[in-house]
C-alpha cells in the first residue's frame, strides 16, 4: 500500500519505490530504500514528514504515493 | 608544496562550521567556473600550505541538484590532493553512504567524525578506519577540538595511494574490473567504471566509448540485473547500504532506542502543525521585521539607522566637513560636491546599514537553526497552486532583506524552469532598500499610514503569484514543479560564528557598494544637477530646473506620461527612477538632492515631505511607487540574475518582463484609479489600461500550454543546459 494511506507514528517496511527516474535515485541517496523501516512523523494534508535511518525527510503527496510499504511492524 | 584539500559532506553535517574553524578569517568567496554555485576557499590557519576548498553539501555523487553536479565535476576533474569528508556521527548511516562513493574516486580520503559529543553510541574508530581503509579522526567543529590531528592526517594522506575497500558482491566487482580494462588509460579508475556500469549519461558522453565496448558493457550490466532481478542503480544502492549496515554492526554499539520523540520532533509537531504552522511563521516574520525595521523601543535596527542618519551623517560628519571646508577655504563648488554630493549620497546608503545588518542576522539565524527547511515544507502546498514549489519560498523570504542573496538562494531548486521562474519573480518582493521609497510616500502623501507598507508587501507577493500563474501557461515554464523532497535537519542552536560570518558576507557587499557605486553615482548626479545651460552658457546653476539633469529627465519623461508623471515632478520622478537602478535607496536620495534640501535626509526623507506632497497627488504617488517597487531591480540584483540565469537571453527576458509588468500595472492603476477618483479624465490611455487589464486577465485564465501526457517525465531535469 502507498505510504500516503499509512498511520502516523507507526513503523512500516518499505517494499518498493515505483517509477524509474532520477527522483527515485535521489530518494535512495537520501536513504529511502527498500527494506528500510519508515515512520510518518507528521502529515499536513497529504504532505508528510517521515523518519528513516534516524533522519527527518519532508515529502510531498506525489512522492508519498510512490513509496509502497508492507504491513506495520510492531 | 601546496596541498589542496576538498571539504565534502552531506548538507548540515557541520561542514561550514568546520571550514570556519579551520580557516578563521582567511576565506575567499567566489563562484565555480562556469556556474554560480558559491565556492569558498581558505588556507588552514596553522599551516598556510594547506588550501581548503569548501564544496556544496551533497548526498551522493549521482547528481540531482545543480550543487551536486558542481561538486562531482570538481572532484573528478580538478582532482584535489585529498578529500576531507565530514561525517555527522548522529546520522552515521546516511553520511557514510556518500563516504563509500568518495572512496571510489582515486583521491585519498580522510574522514572527520563530527558531533561525536552529542551521540551516545560507542564507535570503535580503529575498526571503522579498517573498514573504510581510510584514517578516521574525531573532531568537534563547534568546540574546535581535534582539528590539529585532523589536519595532520590530511597532510600525511595527501601523498598516499590507497587500496579501496571492495564493497560489492563478487559478480559486480568482477564486472567493475572488466570495465576498468576497457576504459582509456587516464580514466581507469574504479569510479569511472562504476559510473559506466550505472549507465550515467554524462560520463558515457565524456568517455565516448567504441560501439563494441559499449555492447560488452551492456552485456555485463544485463547479466547483473538478471542475477539480482532489479535495475543496476537499485542493486548498487542496496549493496552500499548493506555494506554500511555490516560496518555499523561491527563498529558501533547502539545505545539509542529507535524512533524516540526527540526535541526536534517536539518542536516540529508545533511549528509544522497543520493549523499553527502558518500563524507561527507570520508571527516570527512579524517579530523580525519589528526588531529590524519597526518603530518600537526594541527595534534595534531602526534605532541604529536613526542614529546614523540623525547624528552620524546628520550632524557629526557634515559638521566636520563644514569646519574642514571653512578651515581650508575650499572653493564653493568643490564644497558643494563634498557636502551635497558625496556626504549626502553615500550617507543615505550607509545610514541604512544597521537595519540591513539586523535583518541579515535574523535571516542567518533562521537558516542556521534549521527552520528555513520547515518553512519551505509548510509553503509547498500553497505554492504549488501557482506553479512554484516550496523551495521557491526561501529565495522570496531572503529577498525581503536583499534581492541579491534571494536570487542566489534559488540555486537549491532542482528543476531548471522552476528555478528560472523563481529568479524572475524574486525581484518583485520589496527588499530592504525599497523601504525608504515606501516611507517617503507614506509620510508625504498618505499621512504615515501603515497601510502603504502593508500594501507594498501584498503587491509584491501578488506580483509573484500573478506572474507565476501567467508564466506557467507559457511553453517554457509549463509542467508540474519537481516533487518536493527535502531533509529536515535536526534543530540546533545557531552557531555565533556562522551567523556572524554570513551576516558579514552579505552586509559587506552593501557597505562596499556605498563606497564604490553610490559614491561614483553621487558625484555624477551632483555634477548633472549642479551644472546646466543658463542663457546659452554652460555654468553652475542655482535652480536645478535648468540643470543638465533636468534636461535629461525631460527628454525621457514622455515615457512615463501614461503613468501620470506630468508637470514639474515628471523629470524628477524620471531621474529618480533611473538612479533607482543604481540602488533602490537612491530614489529617495535623488528626491532629496532634487528638491533642493541641502543637508542629509533622514531615511524616509521627512524634510522634503511638503515639497513632494505639493508635486504628487495620491494616485500619481501610488503609480510612481508601484512602478519603482516592481520594475527592474538595482544593478547588483540584475548582476545576480545574470549570474544565476547564466544565459544572456534569459537575463534580458527577466528584466524586460519585470519592466513591462511594472509599467502595465502602474498604468492600469493610474488611469483606472484616477478615473474612479475623478482625477483623470477619460482619454486614450484609459482604453490602453482597459486593454492591458483584459490582457492580464486573459493570460491568467486562459488554458495554458500542456504537454502531451506521454512526454511528461520527471527526467526532464535540464541541468545540462545550465552547465553548458
Which overall shape of chain A is indicated by the principal axes computed on the Cα atoms?
globular
- The CATH architecture of chain A can be named as Roll
Mean pLDDT level of chain A = 87
As residue ranges, the low-confidence spans of chain B are 709-724
Strand tally of chain B, please? 12
The largest β sheet of chain A comes out as: 5 strands, antiparallel
What kind of sheet is the major sheet of chain B?
A: 7 strands, mixed
The strands making up the biggest β-sheet of chain B line up spatially as 2-3-4-1-5-6-8
Overall residue-averaged pLDDT value of chain B: 83
What is the molecular shape of chain B? elongated
Instruction: Determine the CATH superfamily of chain A.
Output: Ferrous iron transport protein A (FeoA)
Please tell me about this protein's structure.
Chain A is α+β, with helices and mostly antiparallel strands. Chain A has one domain: Ferrous iron transport protein A (FeoA) (SH3 type barrels, Roll), CATH 2.30.30.90. Chain A has helices spanning 22-29, 61-66, and strands spanning 11-17, 37-44, 47-52, 55-59, 67-69. Chain A has a five-stranded antiparallel beta sheet with strand order 4-3-2-1-5. Chain A is globular, with a radius of gyration of 11 Å. The two termini of chain A are 17 Å apart. Chain B contains 31 helices and twelve strands. In chain B, the strands form three sheets. Chain B has a seven-stranded mixed beta sheet with strand order 2-3-4-1-5-6-8, sandwiched between helices. A two-stranded antiparallel ribbon of chain B has the order 7-9. A two-stranded antiparallel ribbon of chain B has the order 11-12. In chain B, helix 6 (170-182) crosses helix 7. The model of chain B is unreliable at 709-724 (pLDDT under 50). Chain B is an alpha/beta fold and 724 residues long. Helices cover 59% and strands 8% of the residues of chain B. The longest helix of chain B has 35 residues, at 496-530. Among the domains of chain B are: 3-157, 3-Layer(aba) Sandwich (Rossmann fold); 170-253, Orthogonal Bundle (Helix Hairpins); 285-497, no CATH class. The A-B interface holds A 11, 19-31, 33-36, 39, 41-45, 47, 49, 51, 53-60, 62-63 and B 59-60, 62, 64, 90-91, 93-94, 97, 231, 233-234, 237-238, 241, 258-259, 264-265, 268-269, 272-274, 277, 373-374, 376-378, 380-381, 384, 482-490, 713-715, 717. Strand 4 (55-59) of chain A pairs antiparallel with strand 10 of chain B. Chain A: Keywords: Iron.
Amino acid at each position: 500500500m502507498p505510504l500516503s494511506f499509512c498511520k502516523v507514528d507507526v513503523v512500516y517496511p518499505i517494499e518498493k519505490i515505483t517509477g524509474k527516474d532520477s527522483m527515485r535515485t535521489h530518494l535512495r541517496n537520501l536513504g529511502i530504500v527498500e527494506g528500510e523501516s519508515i515512520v510518518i512523523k507528521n502529515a499536513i494534508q497529504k504532505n508528510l514528514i517521515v523518519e528513516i535511518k534516524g533522519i527527518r525527510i519532508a515529502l510531498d503527496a506525489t512522492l508519498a504515493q510512490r513509496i509502497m510499504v508492507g504491513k506495520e511492524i510492531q | 608544496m601546496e596541498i589542496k584539500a576538498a571539504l565534502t559532506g552531506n548538507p548540515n553535517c557541520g561542514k561550514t562550521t568546520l571550514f570556519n574553524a579551520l580557516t578563521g578569517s582567511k576565506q575567499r568567496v567566489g563562484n565555480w567556473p562556469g556556474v554560480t554555485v558559491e565556492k569558498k576557499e581558505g588556507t588552514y590557519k596553522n599551516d598556510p600550505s594547506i588550501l581548503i576548498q569548501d564544496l556544496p553539501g551533497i548526498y551522493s555523487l549521482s547528481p540531482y541538484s545543480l550543487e551536486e553536479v558542481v561538486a562531482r565535476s570538481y572532484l573528478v576533474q580538478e582532482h584535489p590532493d585529498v578529500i576531507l569528508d565530514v561525517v555527522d556521527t548522529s546520522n552515521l548511516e546516511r553520511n557514510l553512504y556518500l563516504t563509500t562513493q568518495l572512496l571510489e574516486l582515486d583521491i585519498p580520503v580522510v574522514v572527520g567524525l563530527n558531533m561525536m559529543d552529542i551521540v551516545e553510541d560507542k564507535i570503535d574508530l580503529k575498526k571503522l578506519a579498517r573498514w573504510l581503509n581510510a584514517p578516521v579522526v574525531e573532531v568537534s567543529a563547534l568546540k574546535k577540538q581535534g582539528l590539529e590531528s585532523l589536519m595532520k592526517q590530511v597532510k600525511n594522506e595527501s601523498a598516499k595511494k590507497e587500496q579501496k575497500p571492495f564493497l560489492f558482491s563478487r559478480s559486480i566487482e568482477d564486472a567493475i574490473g572488466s570495465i576498468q580494462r576497457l576504459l582509456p588509460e587516464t580514466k581507469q579508475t574504479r569510479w569511472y567504471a562504476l559510473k559506466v556500469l550505472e549507465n550515467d549519461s554524462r560520463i558515457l558522453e565524456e568517455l565516448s566509448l567504441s560501439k563494441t565496448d559499449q555492447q560488452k558493457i551492456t552485456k555485463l550490466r544485463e547479466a547483473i540485473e538478471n542475477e539480482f532481478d532489479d535495475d543496476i542503480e537499485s542493486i548498487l544502492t542496496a549493496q552500499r547500504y548493506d555494506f554500511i549496515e555490516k560496518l555499523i554492526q561491527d563498529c558501533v554499539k547502539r545505545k539509542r532506542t529507535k524512533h524516540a520523540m526527540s526535541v526536534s520532533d517536539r518542536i516540529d509537531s508545533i511549528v509544522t502543525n497543520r493549523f499553527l504552522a502558518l500563524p507561527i511563521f507570520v508571527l516570527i516574520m512579524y517579530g523580525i521585521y519589528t526588531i529590524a525595521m519597526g518603530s518600537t523601543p526594541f527595534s534595534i535596527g531602526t534605532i541604529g539607522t536613526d542614529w546614523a542618519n540623525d547624528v552620524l551623517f546628520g550632524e557629526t560628519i557634515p559638521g566636520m566637513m563644514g569646519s574642514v571646508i571653512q578651515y581650508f577655504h575650499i572653493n564653493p563648488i568643490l564644497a558643494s560636491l563634498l557636502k551635497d554630493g558625496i556626504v549626502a549620497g553615500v550617507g543615505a546608503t550607509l545610514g541604512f546599514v544597521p537595519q540591513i545588518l539586523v535583518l541579515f542576522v535574523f535571516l542567518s539565524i533562521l537558516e542556521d537553526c534549521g527552520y528555513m527547511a520547515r518553512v519551505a515544507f509548510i509553503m509547498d502546498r500553497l505554492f504549488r497552486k501557482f506553479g512554484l514549489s516550496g523551495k521557491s519560498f526561501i529565495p522570496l523570504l531572503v529577498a525581503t532583506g536583499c534581492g541579491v542573496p534571494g536570487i542566489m538562494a534559488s540555486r537549491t531548486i532542482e528543476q531548471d524552469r522552476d528555478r528560472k521562474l523563481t529568479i524572475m519573480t524574486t525581484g518583485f518582493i520589496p527588499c530592504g532598500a525599497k523601504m525608504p521609497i515606501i516611507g517617503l510616500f507614506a509620510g508625504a502623501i498618505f499621512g504615515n499610514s501603515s497601510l502603504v507598507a502593508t500594501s507594498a508587501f501584498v503587491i509584491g507577493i501578488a506580483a509573484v503569484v500573478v506572474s507565476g500563474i501567467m508564466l506557467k501557461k507559457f511553453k517554457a515554464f509549463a509542467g508540474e514543479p519537481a516533487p518536493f523532497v527535502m531533509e529536515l535537519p535536526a534543530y540546533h542552536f545557531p552557531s555565533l560564528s556562522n551567523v556572524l560570518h554570513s551576516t558579514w558576507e552579505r552586509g559587506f557587499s552593501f557597505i562596499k557598494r556605498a563606497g564604490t557605486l553610490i559614491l561614483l553615482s553621487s558625484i555624477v548626479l551632483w555634477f548633472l544637477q549642479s551644472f546646466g545651460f543658463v542663457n546659452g552658457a554652460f555654468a553652475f546653476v542655482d535652480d536645478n530646473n535648468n540643470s543638465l539633469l533636468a534636461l535629461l529627465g525631460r527628454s525621457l519623461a514622455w515615457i512615463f506620461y501614461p503613468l501620470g508623471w506630468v508637470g514639474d515632478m515628471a523629470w524628477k520622478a524620471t531621474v529618480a527612477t533611473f538612479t533607482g537602478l543604481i540602488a533602490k535607496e537612491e530614489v529617495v536620495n535623488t528626491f532629496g538632492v532634487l528638491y533642493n534640501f541641502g543637508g542629509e535626509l533622514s531615511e524616509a526623507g521627512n524634510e522634503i515631505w511638503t515639497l513632494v506632497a505639493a508635486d504628487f497627488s495620491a494616485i500619481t504617488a501610488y503609480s510612481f511607487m508601484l512602478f519603482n517597487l516592481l520594475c527592474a531591480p538595482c544593478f547588483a540584483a540584475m548582476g545576480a540574475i545574470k549570474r544565476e540565469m547564466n544565459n544572456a537571453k534569459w537575463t534580458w527576458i527577466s528584466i524586460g518582463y519585470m519592466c513591462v509588468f511594472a509599467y502595465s500595472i502602474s498604468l492600469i492603476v493610474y488611469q483606472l484609479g484616477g478615473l474612479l477618483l475623478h482625477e483623470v479624465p477619460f482619454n486614450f490611455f484609459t482604453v490602453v489600461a482597459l486593454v492591458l487589464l483584459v490582457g492580464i486577465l486573459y493570460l491568467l485564465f486562459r488554458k495554458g500550454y500542456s504537454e502531451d501526457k506521454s512526454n511528461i517525465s520527471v527526467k526532464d531535469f535540464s541541468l545540462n543546459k545550465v552547465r553548458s
